[in-house]
Design brief:
- With about 350 residues, the protein is an alpha/beta fold.
- It folds into two domains: about 80 residues, GMP Synthetase, Chain A, domain 3 (2-Layer Sandwich), CATH 3.30.300; about 240 residues, P-loop containing nucleotide triphosphate hydrolases (Rossmann fold).
- Helix content is about 35%, strand content about 20%.
- The protein has ten helices and 14 strands.
- The strands form three sheets. Strands 4, 5, 8, 9, 10, 11, 12, 13 and 14 form a nine-stranded mixed beta sheet that branches.
């Protein structure tokens, strides 16, 4: 009985086969279907899906349901993925980084996290920018008191469907943070281990700008799946963004791609794009490292206004909102692609060794 179902599933193509020129690109040949069991009219189908709420995986699940129904059974799908990515250790951790400050990294982090949550996922946002923790203001929760649960673990603040923790909740917002590296390391390490995030699908981490102690501490402590590197188009930003990409060379995290922020100014009167900075910098950096440009976010006053009022612009209805929503979808699809490829490679290796 299960053979008939497998035959139907063999007509379902994977969104991204492990080998691009492979002749067998269906989900069965790619090892994404586990052992099928049939109980009466119901077929239980385990799938190697690793990115909850990813558009590509959602479409794949729909196609699988239709194939099982075409074989004459009621589908019951479950997730069964065996990969070697950091996601196996807990929530899927996505870092947002930049080689320098002032490129809008926190804006990208807030809207990426809110965009993922808007798709239905349970999302945490960890603001580790010790010297400039702006995310509480950008989510309209600055000054919120930090409380502990019955086990004396820190309870994150909730806003716009996100669970948020920030150094900004722990310091006087009127005073500068004058900490040496050891104090930064200790604080970030304690926060990472002492916050009770609960059950999360994803944790978006806003890394401090640069490539120093704070960044290394976070990467050593957290099981980061992948990163989004933010830059602006001009060369002075690209020089530092290049170092930001290199930061992940010695870690298990992939760099999913580049976000070129402030890519152009869209005139509200004439509707034309005006290149305030030199054009094409993000594409140049992406090509250098064979990475995709995930998004080009224009310089739009509405983005800054949203940050001031504490309302993530991705949750609104505008062309800019749609851009940030597409960015969230692309990042989720990258997560799924990496996990499925790792699963397929691991399965192939296991079969070869037998």
């Amino acid at each position: 009985m299960s053979s008939a179902i497998r035959d139907q599933l063999s007509t379902v193509e994977t969104p991204d086969p492990l080998v691009d020129d492979s002749e067998e690109t269906d989900i069965v040949s790619q090892g994404l279907v586990g052992e099928i069991t049939v109980d009466g009219d119901t077929a239980a189908v385990p799938l190697a899906l690793g990115a909850p709420y990813s558009p590509a995986e959602t479409e794949l699940a729909v196609a699988v349901r239709e194939a099982v129904e075409a074989a004459g059974y009621e589908p019951s799908l479950s997730v069964a993925i065996d990969d070697e990515t950091p996601a196996s250790e807990g929530p899927i951790v996505i870092a947002v980084s930049s080689g320098k400050g002032g490129v809008g990294k926190s804006t990208i982090a807030v809207n990426l996290a809110a965009g993922i949550a808007d798709r239905g996922a349970t999302v945490g946002l960890f603001d580790t920018d010790v010297y400039g923790p702006n995310i509480p203001r950008m989510l309209g929760v600055q000054g919120e008191p930090v409380r502990a649960d019955q086990n004396q673990r820190i309870v994150p603040v909730e806003a716009h469907g996100l669970k948020l923790m920030s150094v900004g909740f722990l310091v006087d917002k009127e005073m500068p943070v004058v900490w040496r590296g050891s104090m930064v390391d200790q604080t970030l390490t304690e926060l990472w281990h002492e916050v009770n995030w609960g059950q999360l699908d994803y944790l978006v981490v806003d890394l401090p700008p640069g490539t120093g102690d704070a960044q290394l501490t976070m990467l050593q402590q957290m099981p980061v799946m992948g990163s989004v590197v933010v830059t602006t188009p001009q060369d002075v930003a690209l020089d530092n963004a290049r170092k930001g990409v290199r930061l992940f060379d010695d870690h298990a995290a992939d760099v999913f791609g580049i976000v070129e922020n402030m890519s152009a100014f869209v005139c509200s009167n004439c509707g034309e794009n005006h290149e305030v900075f030199r054009a094409g910098g993000g594409a140049k950096l992406a090509a250098e490292f064979d990475l995709p440009v995930l998004s080009r976010i224009p310089l739009d006053p509405a983005i800054g206004e949203a940050g001031e009022t504490g309302e993530p612009i991705v949750l609104g209805e505008s062309d800019i909102s749609e851009l940030f929503g597409d960015l969230a979808c692309d990042v989720l699809d990258h997560v799924g692609r990496r996990r499925r490829h790792s699963h397929t490679a691991r399965t192939d290796s296991s079969e070869t060794s037998q």
